[in-house]
Amino acid sequence: MSTTTTFLIESMAILGGLGLAVGLMLIFASKKFKVETNPLVEEIISVLPGVNCGACGYAGCSDFAERVVNENAPITGCPVGGFDVAKEIGGIMGQEVAEGEKQYPFIKCHGGLNCVDRFEYVGFEDCKAVMMLSDGEKGCSYGCMGRGTCVRACPFDALYIGDDRLPQVNKYLCTSCGLCITSCPNDVLAFAKESEKIHVRCVSHDKGKAVKEVCTVGCIGCKICEKNCPEQAITVTDFLAVIDQDKCTACGICVEKCPQNTIEAR
After folding, report:
1. pLDDT tens digits for 13-67?
2. What whole-number distance in Å separates Cα of residue 237 and Cα of residue 259?
3. Phi/psi of residue 127, each to 5°?
4. SS3 helix, strand, coil % of the chain, rounded to 5?
5. What predicted TM-score, i.e. pTM, was given to this entire model?
6. Which residues, 6+ apart, have CB-to-CB distance to 100 below 8 Å?
7. Strand pairing partners for 106?
8. Average pLDDT over residues 160-173
């Protein structure tokens, strides 16, 4: 047998031995340091939507399941799965779950085409990008920029920008995950319950004169709605009307009296 052949055989034997040793060490380590998973976690993961959107506030479905089991995270914490998934998790954890009222994202601004543009923006279609240029192109820096950041944040295609340059919500596709709300740089989106029928469609805190100069439907803080509400459900604070939905009976008087058509019934 030649010297070269002998060298190759010895080298292969050494490499094979090293491979075997490393393999045995990995097997030992996997057993030694194995983290036991609570079977309840696996059960909860199996009933979750598996979207891993993070709307629950955790890293993903697996993380949420572990938090429910080990840290008492709320079993209703998955907005995508809604009541049906919460009920299944409740069954696994031995907890009762009561169905809450449906709520969907609501656009608090009605500016859009009703609000003047201060300049013509040309660039990346993103609300945050627009606002980096002197608080945005709109005459009202408080309102919706209409560049679709919320639309792109929605993993369920439940939002789109309408002809009025404002976001529109498709309730049939919306899972109320809230990702559109957290993505809005101006906090124009918020959750509203189905039973809440009367809304102020403005977020500006500018004085009335300044509002009227840039927007035909903005709140001017005139307090007419506050004075005419029979339930005292409306207060004007810092030039903006705010509705206490717990007091509001949806009588519609404020809608009729508002000179700017800022308050709407839906």
Report:
1. 666 666 666 666 666 555 555 556 688 899 999 999 988 888 888 889 999 999 9
2. 18
3. -60, -40
4. 35, 15, 50
5. 0.75
6. 76, 83
7. 190
8. 95
Q: Phi first, then psi: what are they for 252, rounded to 5°?
A: 90, 0
Question: What are residue 59's phi and psi, to 5 degrees?
Answer: -65, -25
112, 215 in Cβ contact below 8 A? no
Nearest-CA neighbor of 265 among 196, 175, 204, 219? 196
Encoded amino acid at 135, one letter: D
Greatest Cα pair distance, the chain, in angstroms, is 108
CA pair distance 12, 187, nearest whole angstrom? 66
Which stretch of DSSP H or E encloses residue 190? strand 189-193
Q: For the CA atoms of 212, 214, 215, 219, what is the dihedral angle to 10 degrees? A: -50
In this predicted model, what pLDDT tens digit does every residue of 91-101 receive, in sequence order? 999 998 888 88
User: What is residue 6's predicted lDDT score, i.e. its pLDDT?
Assistant: 65
Domains of the chain, first to last? 39-93 (1.10.15.40), 101-192 (3.30.70.20), 196-266 (3.30.70.20)
Rg for the chain (alpha carbons), in Å? 28
Are the beta carbons of 106 and 203 closer than 8 angstroms? no
Q: At residue 40, what are phi and psi to the nearest 5 degrees?
A: -65, -35
Gap between the Cα atoms of 25 and 20, Å rounded: 9
